[in-house]
C-alpha cells in the first residue's frame, strides 16, 4: 500500500518547524527519520494532510554539554550515537544501545527524537533514556519547556507533546564515573523490536549497590520502573537474584496474578524476569570488564 495524499513542508530550523505546525494546525505531523512514521502511513494507519520534515533543520543535530549533563538535538541519529559522533554522558550505555537498533541503514536515518515521539515501549530509547533520568526539551511558538521522560509517555503512540509542539532535544544527566550499567534486549531476530528490554544502572561502592535504577520495556505500553527489583539490589548487593524472585517482583509491579495467567502470559512474565536478571548480570560484567 501507499500513503494517502499529503502536502510536504521542509523546515529549515526548529523555529521554522514550530511556526509551520502553528500555521497548519491539527492535520500536520512531524517527520524526522521516517523509519517509524512512513510504514504506518503506508498501511493507512495515519493519514496526515501535511508532513513537516525536520531533515533540513540543522540546528536539531547540534549538541551541548556541561559539567552536569549533555543535550542531544532531536535529529541526532542512532548511527551518530553508535559511532561516537556525539557525547555519551552515560559511560557507554547510549553507544551500546544504539548499536543494536534495527540495521545500519535504519540507524543512519532513524533519530533519537523520532523514537521518543513515536513512543513505542519496545524500542530502545524510551526505556534506556528513562533509566538515565533524561528529560524531553519541547518547543512551540509559545516557548520551550522540559518534561522528564518519566512523565512524557502517556501510552502507545501517546506522549506529552501537544499538536503544535516539537521535541527539539533530550537532556541527559551525566553518570558518575563509578556508575555501571547493564542492558539486555530479548528478541527473536537481530534487528527486530524487543519482546523484552531491560536497563539496570547503579553506583558500585565496594560491595554495595547505591541508587539503582531498573527499567523494563515492552511489558506495557510505557516503560516501567521496577522499584521492587531496585530494592532487591539495594538489600542484597550486585549479585543477580534468582529468576523467580525477580519474576514475583515484576508481577507485583505489573499488577498481574501468576495463577490467573494463561500459558502465553506466563511465558512473557518469565521472559521479562530472565531479561531483567540478565541485565543485572550484564552490569556486573561491565563493571568487572
Mean pLDDT equals: 92
* Cα gyration radius (Å): 19 Å
Stated plainly, the CATH topology of the largest domain is called: Uridine Diphospho-n-acetylenolpyruvylglucosamine Reductase, domain 3
Q: Any idea what the shape is?
A: globular
The unreliable regions are: none
CATH architecture of the largest domain: 2-Layer Sandwich
What is the H/E string? EHEHEEEHHHHHEEHEEEEEEEHHH
Main sheet summary: 5 strands, antiparallel
Structural class: alpha+beta
Q: What distance separates the N and C termini?
A: 48 Å
The main sheet orders its strands as 4-5-10-6-7
Approximate helicity band: 25-40%
What is the helix tally?
A: 11
CATH class of the largest domain: Alpha Beta
The overall number of domains is: 3
Task: Please report which band the strand proportion falls in: under 5%, 5-15%, 15-25%, 25-35%, 35-45% or over 45%.
Answer: 25-35%
The total strand number stands at: 14
Protein model, in words:
- The protein folds into three domains: 7-53, Uridine Diphospho-n-acetylenolpyruvylglucosamine Reductase, domain 2, CATH 3.30.43; 63-172, Uridine Diphospho-n-acetylenolpyruvylglucosamine Reductase, domain 3, CATH 3.30.465; 179-288, CO dehydrogenase flavoprotein, C-terminal domain (Enolase-like, domain 1, 2-Layer Sandwich).
- It has eleven helices and 14 strands.
- It is of the alpha+beta class.
- The chain is globular and about 55 Å long.
- The chain starts with 6 loop residues before the first strand and ends with a helix.
- Helices cover 35% and strands 26% of the residues.
- A five-stranded antiparallel β-sheet has the order 4-5-10-6-7. A four-stranded antiparallel β-sheet has the order 11-12-13-14, sandwiched between helices.
